[in-house]
Amino acid sequence: MTNSIKNAIVIGATGLVGQCLIEQLNSLAECEKITVIVRRQIAEFNPYKKVEQFVLEDFLLLNDQDVNGYSHAFSCLGSTIKKAGSKEAFYNIDFEINAHFADLFETTETHLILVSAMGANAGSPIFYNRVKGELETYIQKLDLYRFSIIRPSLLLGERNEKRFFEDVSQKLYRRFSHWVPNSFKYKPVTAQQVAHTMVEAAQMQTQKIEIYDNLHIQNA
């Protein structure tokens, strides 16, 4: 059975995965409208006829009416402690905004698809992984129609902003990638693969909650 992505709402659309997701959604014949929540108008989205930009400086101001009537909701929203500026700011982005976004779909018939992280664990001593795990745990307790968790490893691709660790890791991976077997669960994946997995989950998932691990994403 295939679930039609008739209309979608997306946060985090300007990031590496988000841009790939918008491109893939826009190419779907079944998809009639894609609403992207942005803090300012993004010129790169103008060529996409199905995309409508909803400018909102504070995503926490999103309300029930703003998200009403969508078949699918996608969150590619995420940051790093360095980019956010502090652990508190990172938490406000990665947990608070994503949790608020999820809250809006409780008791609706909207399928929520979230990009998390491979190491997500609410009990992790690593702050980044712990926040991702706490978010997953929080959302799973909500009364959602359907929820997908996408857990990629290192992402390959050119970001708009510099991330030193990821940049170094990508360079090392490209140099030694021929030695990395396809069965290696930590193998880096592309933003296109992650976006494809999100679309696949939206179309094919029948379980109320399902986790798509890095091995699954590798085969996308």
From TrEMBL:
It comes from the Bacteria. Coiled coil: none annotated. GO terms for molecular function: NAD binding; oxidoreductase activity, acting on the aldehyde or oxo group of donors, NAD or NADP as acceptor. InterPro entries: NAD(P)-bd_dom_sf, Semialdehyde_DH_NAD-bd. Residues 8-84 form the Semialdehyde dehydrogenase NAD-binding domain. This is Semialdehyde dehydrogenase NAD-binding domain-containing protein. It comes from Acinetobacter bereziniae LMG 1003 = CIP 70.12.
